[in-house]
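Question:
Write out your own:
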Amino acid sequence: MDAAMTTNDPLPLLTIAELWAMDPGGPPANHVKEELLGAIWEGGFSDGTVFVYTPQFLEIVLPPGHDQNVWDGPPLEVITRARVIETLADLAGDKLPQALKDVRDGPTRVAWAESDNSAPKDPSDPTTPSGSSKNARFTLIQEDPADPATLVGYPFNSYNPKQQALLESLRVSLSALADWCDRTGRQRPSFLEDPRYGLVQSGPTYATGEAGRPSNRTLFMAEFNRRAELDLVEKGVAAEARALKIWLDGNHPNAPNTEEKTIENAIREPYRLWRSSKSGKTP
């Protein structure tokens, strides 16, 4: 983890959701995640209070096998709603959902008009409105981009795995989170008052092996298993360890530092078993 990062740094949506869900009677983590994402789309967090962890962001958006140094640049970078939307659209490939297209580019509508300046339209064409003459012509009109708030109704599970990883990695300033809770009448999650996590500088959030708290190994192995189930594992155990290191630093910034080599050694056998299962060979 970069030495510049501290316990007062903004936390990822995924981490906030998991911590909030630990409150007695607290909402489920998935519900919190949807609520926080909705607040981002609605502009509930002011400009300059939503961030990405640069290495993790680049690891998500760059194609597999890239040779760009993801550690270049500042560890934390402000990200706007417009950039989030543009990045989500890029990650959609050729399957851009209409909701995202409308927010990024604006919806299109068909305008019909009579025209005598061109050859008659084939009256058998089914796109001609009922009752229109054979000279009717249509024009596609691009409207202004839709309000990002319209994405509030777009379920998180409707995004593809890369898009979900991006959204879960978005970081919210803790002071902005507290202000949002106060403005919307929500009870602040208790971790905001806990100096290990919240607004007061203190010791690390995680202690490897501490009773009741996940060790770093537990965290990155769970992520490896998730990635394996979705066939998102990198080619080569070293590349996968590097991706998990970036994920760990990005989603659990207060955890003690774990070396990339340590992760590589831990996942070597599970990686071999996963690769054998994909190739159909007996381990």
Q: What stands out?
A: The chain has three domains: 1-96+149-203, 108-142, 205-283. The chain has ten helices and six strands. Residues 1-8, 116-120, 200-205, 207-213 have pLDDT under 50 and may be disordered. Strands lie at 11-12, 50-53, 76-78, 108-114, 136-142, 171-172.
